Amino acid sequence: MSPANIFYAIILAGAFLAGQSENPVWVILVIAALATVARALDPAAAVTRAAQGKTLAKALPMMVFNQIIWVNLVFLIGFGIVWALGAPVVALPLWLPILVSAVGLGGAIAVSRKG
Asked: Which keywords does the record carry (predicted)?
């Protein structure tokens, strides 16, 4: 597993925490934006885009759509746990899941600058 994928998983962990703590749904869009930036800066994804002959501008609309799907899925997994148990396992403030995802984005940026 590459460092970029590890930091992407941290971003998705923020989405899980947001669902688990019953945060508003708009948090999905914020975290999806962070995930999109992380994927846009991922060196391996850039190589894949180049091999397909796509520029970032051409790949961006589908990339945004893809990240909304993944973040929403992880959010709903966290929310499903809350629904099954009837209450959040740990009540978290709204800023914490976004902060976790921002840390993942910060790591992804650092990895992309290093490579």
From this structure: Membrane, Transmembrane, Transmembrane helix
